[in-house]
Amino acid sequence: MTKADMNKQPSEVASMFDGVAAHYDVTNDILSAGNAVLWRIATVKAIAAAPGERVLDIAAGTGTSSAAIAKSGAEVVALDFSAGMVEVGRKRQPAIEFIVGDAEQLPFGDDEFDAVTISFGLRNVNRPKVALSEMYRVLKPGGRLVVCEFSTPPLAGLRLGYQAYLRHVLPGIAKVTSSNSPAYTYLAESIEKWPEQQVLSQWLRGAGFTRVAYRNLTAGIVALHRGRKPQSSSRRPSSAAGA
User: 10-231 maps to which CATH number?
Assistant: First the structure.
């Protein structure tokens, strides 16, 4: 599957990521012109994990971000729906607990985590609103959500230049650096089809999160969204709207 029609079949997307797992981190560093490291630093700061806290890192890939979060002393669980990514992650980050799982059906009980984060993975979920409701469910009251995702640059000139990069430059670089260049065609298409910052903020509020805010990174190429599960939360947000 290479077309990002937003009706993504989890097994197909997982298989696609299995095929790029071995060189995934190196390719991402090249395609992001080194900004991936800066985005990771910003995400870890936003999570603000404390020693003893339990953090769920969804779409963790090979665990690079999970390891950075764990440096705070927090217990990090890394979840990804690609068995290939998890296999590589377990070898590279043996101190991190890795689980193969689906963001739409998290294999955890209610109120288990102090923080939940997902970086560049919500875009690959078939029903992202359902996934957000699951993140809300597994968070403890008062728990924190941090979503790092590609987004829409607000400046028209930059937006046009970025679209040209996605359509014409990125696929060429991926052919040289990746073992599965069609996966990066999918990447470019999925970024272009992803909603802008305000829409994702509405999705977070719809899932039940409060104190929702975002800030742009790299002029809006990436946005960092944050939300909280209310301290006294008896209501369960509906996932029916997540299709």
Answer: 3.40.50.150
Spatial contact of 69 and 97, defined as CB atoms under 8 Å apart? no
DSSP 113-169: EEEEEEES-GGG-SSHHHHHHHHHHHEEEEEEEEEEEE---SSHHHHHHHHHIIIII
Distances (CA, A) of 32 to 36, 206, 222: 6, 31, 11
Write phi, then psi, for 225 (nearest 5 degrees). -100, 140
Residue 119 is assigned to a ligand binding site:
yes
Each domain of the chain, given as residue ranges in start order, spans: 10-231
Indicate if the pLDDT at residue 22 is higher than 60.
no
Q: Answer yes or no: is 62 a known binding residue.
A: yes
Question: What pTM did the predictor assign?
Answer: 0.85
Distance (Å, rounded) from C-alpha 118 to C-alpha 122?
A: 7
- pLDDT at residue 217 is higher than 50: yes
115 pairs with which residues across the strands?
Answer: 55, 144
According to the annotation, is 103 in a ligand binding site? yes
Structure tokens, 34: 């080194």
